[in-house]
Amino acid sequence: MTERFHMEHVGEEDPFEKDCMSGFGMLALFQCQVEYHFSTEDMSLEEAELFIQDVLNHLPDETINEICKKACDWKNLKMSSDSADYPSGLAEACGREILAFMSVGEVDLYRNPYDRNDNTFGATLGGGTEWDSENGMEIVIRGNKVLEVREYLGYGKFAIWNETDGNE
């Protein structure tokens, strides 16, 4: 039996915004500690920890492969459009090898803003890449489905759902 996931150092992010919480914990895909952010208006601490444990830290192979495919597509497009100096091995990296050229430092967790009864949570994994260090990176996920791997745009939950997702 696996040990239940628990965030460490959980607390309010800002004394003036009591519903904004954060805590630290492992993100299995990148094998690193990250800061998780969530709103207590969207989910409880227990719901956040269960989503991290059961979904984010147990992504199916198809999901991981999709993250890698989208990251490689973005990398290839970026590298073909400029003449910057890139690290050795980046151009040839494909499949899961691309993960070595990516990093994640924080993860924002969300509930569907259009359907409060939707039990499928979403997340944006924010960090950086070796091929686009200027703009940062975000991996946008709903449940265990990859929606985007791209430069950081910061749309939050509105990158995950739109108004037509209210009745899904």
Using brief descriptors, characterize the structure shown.
single chain; 168 residues; alpha+beta
Account of the protein in words:
The chain is of the alpha+beta class. It has two helices and seven strands; from the N terminus they run βββααββββ. The protein has helices spanning 45-54, 61-80, and strands spanning 8-14, 17-27, 32-39, 102-110, 122-129, 137-142, 145-151. Strands 1-2-3-4-5-6-7 form a seven-stranded mixed beta sheet. The longest helix is centred in the middle third of the chain and has 20 residues, at 61-80. It is globular, with a radius of gyration of 16 Å. The model has no long low-confidence stretch (mean pLDDT 93).
Tell me the helix content. 10-25%
Spans of 5+ residues with little confidence (pLDDT < 50)?
none
DSSP strand count: 7
Order of helices and strands: EEEHHEEEE
Assign an overall shape: globular
Total helix count? Answer: 2
Rg over C-alpha atoms, rounded to the nearest angstrom: 16 Å
Q: Strand order across the biggest sheet?
A: 1-2-3-4-5-6-7
What is the average of the pLDDT values?
Answer: 93
Distance between the termini: 33 Å
The main β sheet shows up as: 7 strands, mixed
Strand content: 25-35%
Class by alpha and beta content: alpha+beta
